[in-house]
Amino acid sequence: MSEIQEQLAVLRKRIARIDRKYESGALRPPRDAPKPSPKLDLLGGREVETPFGKHLEMEKLYECHKRHGSADISSLAELPHDLLNRISNGEIANSSPAEWAFLDTETTGLAGGSGTYAFLVGIGRITPEGFRIRQFFMRDYGEEASHLWAMAEYLAQFSVLVTYNGKAYDQPLLETRYRMTRSRPPFARMRHLDLLFGARRLWKLRFDSCRLIDLENQILGVERTGDLPGEMIPYVYFEYLRTAEAFRMVPIFHHNAIDILTLACLTGIVPWAFRSPEESNLAHGAEMVGLGRWLRNADQPDRAADLFRRAIERGLKDELLFRTLWDLALLEKKLGRESACLAGLAELVQCRNPFRVAAYEELAKHYEHRERNYAMALEMTRTALVLEDCERLRRRETRLGVRLAKPASRRLL
Asked: What ranges in 100-210 are assigned the alpha helix state H?
């Protein structure tokens, strides 16, 4: 008998032993054994019935006299109606904070697509009593249509959707789930602010990570306790589906609620910086540079240059400092402030940095085109060539050499 045939014979014997176990009923539960079910009192929720079945809902209120780290929850209700105007590029010009829905999902995976379920959807709202969060939970896959229907009904009272990375993940995922259940997504009529983009503009130069939980710690000073890492959430939910042990879900509800509360508190901070950069409480030079770049791209060079100057005075790391000096010099040139531009370029050529050659080239352009000082322009070009030999600078050196070789033009009397 060959080796493969021997292995197949062993495998057949193993399968036969397994079949005999099932036939004897050794692995079957008693027929009258009750099916495990989640204990609602452990979750603190209520069972809700809809035209599409049943699901579970939880509600939590963070009273207005409480704080979330350095953020005062009562101040959320006092946010101005035009707060989101600048950060949304005018898409959300005027809206009451009571009309903002702060949404976050917990899902069965991060890949997205039709096989990923949003088993828990939390929606926060600002109320006179404080910040209230309602969570829609499906205890099994069969409850998806019910909890999606209830969520759409609840969102009908809001005009603005606020998320963190929701435009790329949460909203597309939920729209897929609505279509899979042959329902219409409720987001088309809502204006959507994804706070991730504003947070990145403001803090990506200061922090290594702009994840929500990292900003929660760095900006709000919150150190989470009793939390569950996000990457573990799908596995815990699958374990809950297998065992129906409700206590396994408690850390997930807590994680979701704190994410939404943090999102609301950061919404009270990030848009302020975009609304009035000069009056915002910016404490770090890197934040000023981030806002300055946003203003520059928004075609507001005067305000951008002011923030760049403030950032340089506040102090920056060398890499960011050299880039900011370069950006400021170009802005001063655009604004027609030649002396300020030259001062910035002069600083850049004093020491080794990534913009030194470009600064020498800009000085050469200035002396050639503005002052008609071809000798000084040639000196700047040759100095740049010592640092970086390239065809572009070689052509400039040749052209300036030809100009200097020509006799000075004489005016006819």
From this structure: 144-155, 171-180, 195-203
Query: From residue 205, how far is each of 93, 225, 318, 320 by CA, in Å?
Result: 28, 28, 13, 8
Q: What CA–CA distance (Å, rounded) separates 329 from 301?
A: 11
* pLDDT digit string, tens, across residues 322-361: 999 999 999 999 999 999 999 999 999 999 999 999 999 9
Pairing state between β 160-163 and 130-137: unpaired
pLDDT of 18 higher than 60? no
User: Does position 280 have pLDDT exceeding 80, yes or no?
Assistant: no
The CA R_g of the chain, rounded to the nearest whole Å, is: 31
Cross-sheet strand order for the sheet of 46-50: 46-50, 53-63, 130-137, 118-127, 100-107, 160-163, 191-194
Angle at 316 between CA 310 and CA 320, to 5 degrees: 105
Say what the pTM is: 0.83
Report the DSSP pairing between strands 53-63 and 46-50. antiparallel
Q: Among 113, 147, 151, 107, which residue's Cα sits nearest to residue 252?
A: 107
**Could you give the C-alpha distances from 364 to 123, 249, 356, 360, 374, in angstroms and in order?**
58, 67, 12, 6, 8
